[in-house]
Every structure is written in structure tokens, then in C-alpha cells.
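Researcher: We're teaching a course module on how sequence relates to structure. For the next exercise, students receive a sequence and then see the predicted structure as C-alpha cells, so they can try to spot secondary structure elements on their own. Here is the exercise chain.
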Amino acid sequence: PAFGLFLFTIARDPLRIIILIAGAFFWLVSLLLSSLIWFIAVKASDPQDERLQKGLLIFGVMFSVLLQEAFRFLYYKLLRKAIEGLVALSEDGCSPISIQQMAYVAGVGFGLMSGAFSMINLLADALGPGTVGIHGDSQLYFLTSAFMTMVLIFLHTFWGILFFHGCEHRRWWEIAAVIIMHLTVSGSSFCNPLYVGSLVPSYLLMAAAAAWAYLLSGGSVQNLRRFLLCKC
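Model: And here is the predicted structure for the students to work with:
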């Protein structure tokens, strides 16, 4: 269902596709830089020191989150300049796409690329060697990984809306809230293989972020009720 966001809301609009691809590129660059820094740190440290290696892994995850949000901010600045250019070129002085729509599409771009890399890593693990759960560990690794991938795609979409809204209205606490949620979700992965410790908080945060983003986008409880009841 997460990849249906692209098919039903973006695929028919060329401008939205461009914004989505650019957003995915920004996420890729942030991943490349964070991976490079983590790789250098690991090579420069003692590989036999398990405590140090675990600390470097935690540092790498937290640094990657902060770098992703930094690139999200840079992408907002780029799109803001793009809107000014579109307004200058349009005949009626209006942009063909609003900043709220850009925030949504950019969030989907971040989320889809994040989900794609999660799926690639999952498929790579599925090739072996070994069998999941052969030593008594949980056999739900692939299932929980799929659910975690889905929640991250949705979360990036909602975070994009919240982050852009915070930048647009200079509500820095909204940006801080997005960063804290991102750090929390990423940090909860260290609870694995106790998957309940990562999935439950992530889905609770997704529900909260979805409601928040819905309200910031102009939604209301009445509109939601009319939608669920299929009323025009």
C-alpha cells in the first residue's frame, strides 16, 4: 500500500514526478555521506572491540538521521526557490503546485527511496547463507522487516509535511519534533530481535504524525467522517 502513494497521487503529474525523483536523490546523497563517514570510522577503529563497534553503529544511525533531516531542509530551500521561479514564469502569477503539495511529494520521495533500500537489504539477507530462526531466534524477521519498511515510507511522507510546514511558518519546534520522532524510530531498531519494541512505538508515532500532518494540511474531523462515510 505504501508504494500506491506514487501510483494514485503522483504518477499522472510530470511536475510531481520530477519533485519526487529529486527528493529521492537528496535522500540518496545523505545516505552516501553518512555511510562514507561510518565506513571511515569503522576502518580507523579496532575491529576486535565489540563495545566500540556497537557504539560506532549507534553513532552511524543517529548521524544518518540528522544528515537526512539536514538534506530535507536543503531540499525545502531548493523547492522554495523553484516556486518563486514558477510564479515568475506563470501568466497568472500563481504557482502550478503549492508548498503543501511539494512537501507531500518530497516526503514520498524520501520514503520510497528509503523503502527501496530496505527491501534490497532484506532480499540480500534472504539469499543466505543460513536459515532464519535456526538457532531459536524469531522466525518473523522478514515479516517484521516488511512492516517496518512500510511504516518508514509513511513516516517520511508525514515528516515531509510537518517539516516543510515548520520551515514555512518558522515553527522550529515542529522541525525539532520531526527530528526527535526520526531518532526515536531509528533508535528503536536496536531493540531487535525484540520486534515488539520497535514496531509498536513506530506505528504509534506513525498514527500521531498522520493525524498531525492531516490537520496541518487543512483537514478536519468532519471532512474525515464524510470521507469514511463516502459522502460528497
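Model: If you want an answer key for the exercise: DSSP finds eight helices and no strands in the chain. The chain has one domain: 1-229.
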